Amino acid sequence: MKKKVQKRVNESLIRASFERPRVTTLLGARRVGKTTLLRSYMSENPDRKWVFFNMDKRDQRLRVEKEELELMIEENALQRIGKGKKIWVAIDEAQKCPALFDQVKAIYDENKDQKRIKFILTGSGHLNLHQLAAESLAGRVELMHLREFNLKEMTKLLCPDVSLPTDSVFDFFIKPFEEAKLKEIWEERRPFQKILTEVLPIHLVWGGLPEVLEEQTSKDRQRYLANYLQTYLENDVRAIESISDLSLYQQLMKACAEQTGSLRDDQKLLNALGCSRNTLVKYRGYLTATMQYKEVFPYIDSTVKRLIKSPKGYLINNGLVSYLTGIYDYSVLNTTGLLGHRFENWLLNELLTWTDSVVENHAIYFWRTGGGAEVDFIVSIGAEVLPIEVTFSSQILPKKTRHLREFMEREPKSKWGIYFYNGAFKIDSGQRIIYLPTRMI
User: What is the DSSP letter of 422?
Assistant: First the structure.
């Protein structure tokens, strides 16, 4: 029996890009499901003339390096480009072949007006990794992202019969506020409180990589994460010529895991790793480029000031954080106070998945003052600014609400503050704070 493919929350947006004429590039960390989604799309459109290449395959990569991409397409399609049906070209692991992008550009430019060819590329790194396509495909490419499973996707995977609401509660906050509508959204989600509450700890410990969730035991999940890390280091990182010390790179990953959610302290890292600042910056840059690590910068009016301030760093996948720190036990995380960092990491993933679907200019920041006031996340979307406080507690902590109010007093573009926690749903219209339970997501 054919295994049913899990539908992703942003899949309709990604598929819409597949249908548009420009080059679509689907980016995401290793094993988040990019190829699965693409293969599913191909199988649902069997009448199209498909050509599929994988730049992990050395023979295909060598031919591209000899500038034979056009010939490869025509050989596989058994026709000349433009002399028959439109050709749909899917290229997996595109970042592995720097020679690819100039050829894609040339073929696209020659045929774009006649709509003779469509390119869909996937990659487990940003296109500017190895300086690949920042210039080659400028103005010709649509960048789409696929993240690890969020809570909704994970719940659907583990409990296929559950019919969760399809919309995101975050969408509500970039629309004119309607208190009655928000209450309606809450009522709609009430039947799913128990199941979402049961699934969340799995995400906090194991992260949202689709295949790790399919493993049945803790040992099997640990084994999968060990193999995942080894494959990432051997296949993705070793291929980068300027990364000469895999052991140092793995030590940096471990340090990032231990410091997830904390202000980046380069001097402490340099002392611990015993490397030069240039090496640290370079290695961390590749960790970011391969979409394993995310830096969140402070919310400051001046872009120049923001960039010289220390960001908060997140090793994005909670499963890798568990593996690299050796803590897989939910109760241990809870008693040691580390659960809050995992919770914050999880919410960052939810926010990234949500903002992937937003057309307006957007960014995620944090806010901190010299006097000690801070707000975990500031989401800027167009002219809207949404401050979000995060706590695993089921109680409303006065200090956190005070910090939300202080930010909103300073930033007139923020109309409401969001308090994300494990307590009850509540709207405080007087203070303009909405208390959202985790399960409402």
Answer: S
For 289, 362, 404, the CA distances from 250, given in Å and listed in that order, are 15, 31, 37
- 426 strand-pairing partners: 435
54 has pLDDT over 90: yes
Residue 130 confidence (pLDDT) above 60: no
- From CA 33, how far away is CA 24, in angstroms rounded? 16
| 37 close to 134: Cβ distance less than 8 angstroms | no
Residue pair 292/253 in contact by the 8 Å Cβ criterion:
yes
Sequence-ordered list of residues with C-beta below 8 angstroms from that of 326, at least 6 positions apart, any chain = none
If pLDDT is split at 50, 70 and 90, which confidence band does 176 have?
confident
Using alpha carbons, select from 81, 164, 153, 173 the residue that is nearest to residue 118.
Answer: 81
Token pair 């926690």 in the structure block, residue: 421
C-alpha 6: how far from its chain's center? 17
3-class SS at 372? Answer: coil
- How many CB atoms are located within 10 Å of the residue 2 CB? 5
Sequence-ordered list of residues with C-beta below 8 angstroms from that of 401, at least 6 positions apart, any chain: 389, 417, 419, 431, 433
